[in-house]
Design brief:
The chain is 33% helix and 27% strand. By secondary structure, the protein is an alpha+beta fold.
Amino acid sequence: MEKENIAVGLDIGTTKIVAMIGKKNEYGKLEILGVGKSKSLGVKRGVVDNITQTIQSIQLAVKDAEANSGYKIKDVVVGIAGQHIRSIQHSDYISRSNAEEVIGDKDIDLLINQVHKLAMLPGEEIIHVLPQEFKIDGQSEIKEPIGMCGGRLESSFHVVVGQASSIRNIGRCIQSSGIELSGLTLEPLASADAVLSQEEKEAGVALIDIGGGTTDLAIFKDGIIRHTAVIPFGGNVITDDIIEGCSIIEKQAELLKVKFGSAWPGENKDNEIVSIPGLRGREPKEISLKNLSKIIHARVVEIIEQVFAEIKAYGHEDPRRKLIAGIVLTGGGAQLKHIKQLVEYITGMDTRIGYPNEHLAGDSDEEISSPLYATAVGLVMNSIENNSQSAIKVTFSAPEKVNVYRAPVEPVKEVEEVPEIEMETEKEVEIELPKQPESTETKIRKSFFDKYVDKIKEFLDNAE
């Protein structure tokens, strides 16, 4: 009997680390089997800055997920983010010796490998090479070149670049936590998989993922990724401003932001005041909610303006590049009250909050369908694409026999001996779904990640 495809995603964020175990149900939806969460220590603005603390946080999240699901995690797909991420547009071509021969996977691989030889800045490495449109003998805007004929195969690429040391540090943390690294995905791409529909990607959409340490941006048009960026500000800088502006401790500032915070100061009346207990017998502090909203508003405006500058840099004002579907907000920061209205006011673009519930099974926990878990859900979906067996069910041996205690009182009816308990495992009926033909982009992503993960493993083995 074929084993079920159990997938695991690990979202290493600045404020939290989430390990999520899932599988596809018979309807093709994602069924979450277990989630583990831990406070992220040792990560700043999406980059590991303390290996020991990060390993401990990963192990806590993994153990939590294993305890909730009854599965043992073997390997994970990890999200990559951080202020060191940048993207470039690049075009390249190959000349084929036989123009009559049909274009196949090997031609695409040859073109991709050529892009990998691009000269990068010292210490940088290519993370993703994402093909956009292909051109064959001058015929442009070809999305699927396989099966066509031609002498010159050309393509434009979206190349995502990051610091090699940051990527290897994540690999080291995963390996030291006792699990394997099966894949790397740029976090905004994972979030996009979880919250965007294909129609939005076709029409043109900007996904803004507001995390704790960074704000990630991914722009899609005509179903193709066009631009990615990571802005080194997130929810934590808002909390820092509240600490400074209200002279309170971090825990109180975070609670204030989540419970009473608003991105629109006009919503609060002048007489709305919240009282905060003082430290060690000091008098309680009274904080005006209007002032709190002003502090939050100022910082959110700064973050959104930086994101909007990136959207303009992509060329949103050009009618041919217009993002018709507007903006989708996700991540923990998207839960801030009135942020949708503020984004619409600053950018003039339609905005909605992105929930990852489109791909989740109907009976999923309400907490999982929160924008907070969008990246983790996207990483699990990515792991399912790899057809990896990332976790195995923990089986328990049955007890030999159950002894029934009989009371000395004369029973009305003799108690029957309890039969031996047998626990059956792996007897579920599996419905095999017909496999969809893989697109060129999926094939490219897979073949590249196999090579890349092998490269990281080789580096880690040599470093020992």
